Amino acid sequence: MDKILVIDDQADVRLAATVALQQLGLHCLEAEGPEHALELLKSEHISLILLDMNYKLDTTSGEEGLRFLKQLNQLGTTIPVIVMTAWASIDVAVKAMQLGAVDFVEKPWNNLRLTAVVQQQLKLKQSNHDNACLKALTSDTEAHYIAQSEIMQLLLAKAERAAKTDASILITGENGTGKSLLAHYIHQHSLRADKRYVSVNVGAIAPTLFESELFGHKKGSFTDAKEDRLGRFEIAEGGTLFLDEIATLSLELQSKMLRVLESKEFEVLGSSQTKTADVRIISATNSELATTIEQGEFRRDLLFRLNTIELHIPPLRDRKDDIAPLAEHLLLVHGKKYQRANMALSPDALNALKNYSWPGNIRELSHCIERAVIMSDNNNVQANDLILDQPSCEQTNSNAEQALPLLPLEELEKQMIQKALLQFNGNVIAAGEFLGLSKSAIYRRIDKHQLDLKEVER
Hints:
It comes from Pseudoalteromonas lipolytica. The protein is an alpha/beta fold. It is 48% helix and 14% strand. The protein has helices at residues 11-22, 34-43, 63-75, 90-98, 111-135, 150-163, 179-188, 210-215, 232-235, 251-263, 289-294, 300-306, 323-337, 347-355, 361-375, 383-386, 393-398, 400-403, 409-423, 428-435, 439-448, 453-457; strands at residues 3-7, 27-31, 48-52, 81-85, 103-106, 169-172, 197-201, 216-217, 229-230, 240-244, 265-267, 274-276, 280-285, 309-312, 344-345, 380-381. The longest helix has 25 residues, at 111-135.
């Protein structure tokens, strides 16, 4: 229910406004002056303010009302304000509008005029909020999870049971196994399926922008804040918020995340007003969080908030029965994308796919099929169209001692990234995917090792 704050030093005026607005099903709070109103704003979620412009200092200038509007601007609030003036002063009304007031009514008012203005502004506020949500990055597409192997059938059964609760879920698994797809699948089988599903890659957010991205900001709250922005928690209100790569969160930001998960409360950057978050949290990581906790890089209490239920997706090499149906599905998807709709996988191509180790999991399989669709000479994909020329897991393990020099871990990581960048002609994204690293992770490591991309491209 919308709450209307009526600010006037005359009790009979406040009562008259309250009675009129209660007929619309609105809940009214009363304040006898600006100071009292500012205190109420700290604890109450107000939808609209009715503001008298004149109080104890005088009865005509409107200075006290104008000062209150300036204070609201300093707080960064966007609550619509309708001003009330007993003298129908055009100058005061214009000054109030310049400071952010949305409309005005004259005292004594006509109840029809008052209720019409209030209803109009409440509808406009809701419309603005909805438009901002529509502009935000949300996903409404249906998630199809292809799983024929017994191990994946058991996992999906667990996921569907967990989906019916509001418990926080942590999804673990190697890069490319389909963690984000499983998160979307859980949302679609949850009691919140008719609400928004919002996905955010935590690892891709710069630490300085984290609060703004997650909690939103008010215009002017920092240098580049040129307009109000909704945060992901507010956009996902009533629905599901998926936090991918949660292990990349810095310790400082982990404390901020823990607070909102524990109390369901947060503040928009640049605002002192506390908001509540009614969202279901699903998070994902490819890291061993137990190890990062031991190393002091992740908070144990935050993990407890995230993993009420933990679901682990096995790598593709451990679910061979899923390779063929996944490959055929991806062939249809990429065939449609590149206008090659009648393609098929030959028996030798399917056999090659099943015998490959898939270090990049489903993501690598998708790239492999996409490449075959583009490069094959006919509609029947052969094994050589797949270009699976990398060694299998068994070959790699048997030659590991000979192929892998004994080097410090940091130096070994640097060399692997250099080799991957050379292999992919300086394509950072492709090199990262081959190494099982996200876009943000590969760039962080390039910066850490001070690698010169220009040298690689040569």
